[in-house]
């Protein structure tokens, strides 16, 4: 992704140390069409801009921030009557902003960032599509218990060799709500005889006035010979609100040859009362070079045992060009 530099080195005299500082802007734009069951085929446009600031102290301490303007401003293609439109601002506090400090001790990140479980696990999805139409009712983004309160997460992570671990917390903005969301995660990434392999394990828990819940999950991913890739993801959530366990299983397979990537994914949520939400997705990407890529995506969602929701099985699709800057 290309970045435009706004500043290079600066001397911060008021703090008593010199700091190498850099500001950059990156982003992407999308244009195409989308549609699906009960969705008329229509145009899609979206622009996302991220500002990044990075600095380093004389002692080697790195610090910085990211601000995602797509999170701050909204979506050009929000559903009519929905919470967002092209010029609607997100009301969440510091939505899309993260701040970090990093050194030999590890990295501390705060803001709109992932909890330890999401940080550790690999999502069972490969490739890209406009509006993420290859996602579906059985897709799990590994958010775990993130966002139960105001979405402001503090995460500490530390890496040594091929291993890394993390701990996270999300505190309530009102002490009467209950305890913080606490999380732990670990991951490993290595190479065996030319086969890239990674594994992740995560856990989060919370106890408050409206839920007593914990979730754990594991993921395995491999990049094999000749451009093949596979991801397996499993998690189980125990929640007093849902009155039982919710198990999720996800699988993704992909193949890349030159500029072409094709992939498929499947996922399913199994609830304690024997209801199910599942789906599958397809994606095809063609890299045009220079940051531009043709993207096509399709997703199909199915519901079983939800009563009236059984009639809500649906599919979505999109096709267009994504441009990274």
Automatic annotation (TrEMBL):
Gene3D superfamilies: Porin (2.40.160.10). GO terms for molecular function: porin activity. GO terms for cellular component: membrane. It holds the Pfam family Porin_4. Residues 7-304 form the Porin domain. The keyword Repeat does not apply. Keywords: Signal. Residues 74-94 are annotated as: Disordered. The keyword Signal applies. It comes from Tranquillimonas alkanivorans. Residues 1-20 form the signal peptide. InterPro entries: Gram_neg_porin_domain, Porin_dom_sf. This is Outer membrane protein OmpU.
